[in-house]
Amino acid sequence: MSEDDIPPAPRPKRGVKPSGKPTLRTIAEMTGFAITTISRALNNAPELSQDTRDRVQKIAAEIGYLPDRAALRLKTGRTNVISLVLEPDEQIYGFGSSLVSGLTEAMRDTAYHLVIMPQFRNVQPIEPIRHIVRNRMADGVIFSKAEAFDERIRFLIDSDFPFVTHGRSSWPDPHPSVDFDNEAFAYGAVKRLVEKGCTRITMVSPESALTYSDHLRTGFLRAANEAGIAHDVAADVNLSSPTDAIRNYVIKRSKRPDAPDGYVCTSEISALAVIGGLTDAGRVVGQTAHVVTKQASPLFAQFQPGAETVFEDFVKAGQHLGALLLRRIAGEGPEGLQYLDAPKFEWQ
């Protein structure tokens, strides 16, 4: 007789939970299955029937069973945890929540759980990474805002610790990454502004240390040079500047003889600040000035119909981040664990 054929033991009355902290033995006593079967069912072992897995998992949820992570780590060396390092302000416009949504979708039907580790501005970015690795708080880690020669990436490669970055780097060693093709976005955005009749354009770029800042500049400069139009990257402000600073920069630029008539924005927040500055300066977006921006939320286009947008799908990015990290944790080498999302230009 197989373990799946063991008849179920009498269950407690509906709504009555066993006293004390639920364990594997608790579920075994409630179902009549062996503890090994319970453990495999909770880990979605494919050799067990779907009915068995569903039944065990349903009871585990009903009684509030949680695995003992300390015991699991001692026994297997695994925590069944994936850690996402996230800055608090990355929740703006749903960036963080969209990544989390995609990650949880990727981890569905696995034994893994997602834990968010905050990255505060007054703490060096390497610190939460070191904390996770040295204390073995997770089986893998994900973080964003990758730099060209990011010390977090070097540390994780040297530590042989599974990770995936949201953004690429310039390290010669291959590492898992998920990114948006920002060079293609900037190139296409400039081409669109040229089509709109713009003759002088500027871009509000991210901080220069970030890898995708180089990608944006490359695409921006290539398209502008090909078109033979005047162009520059804003020197006084960047994507991390306060919105008031960006707005005031645009107002001042608009009063000069060489005022731009086209802007490339790399986020909705910067686009809102740019549009606010243009409006204050008496420009009409979509008529006397044009803006092309990336957007992560459909709300932006509804409130700013004069700007043209290119969607960056952070939910899809989260799905790929999770899928690649699971493959890396399973032992797959870093070569080939890269995904680059191509922008889709709706005006084409």
Automatic annotation (TrEMBL):
Molecular function per GO: DNA-binding transcription factor activity; transcription cis-regulatory region binding
InterPro entries found in the cross-reference section: HTH_LacI (IPR000843), LacI/GalR-like_sensor (IPR046335), Lambda_DNA-bd_dom_sf (IPR010982), Peripla_BP_I (IPR028082)
Gene3D superfamilies to which the protein is assigned, alphabetical: 3.40.50.2300, lambda repressor-like DNA-binding domains
Location of the region described as Disordered in the Swiss-Prot/TrEMBL record: 1-22
Domain HTH lacI-type, chain residue ranges per copy: 22-76
Database matches in SUPFAM superfamilies: lambda repressor-like DNA-binding domains (SSF47413), Periplasmic binding protein-like I (SSF53822)
Keyword annotations of the record: DNA-binding, Transcription, Transcription regulation
Highest taxon, organism lineage: Bacteria
Keyword Transcription: yes
Protein name, entry field: LacI family transcriptional regulator
Species assigned in the record: Devosia limi DSM 17137
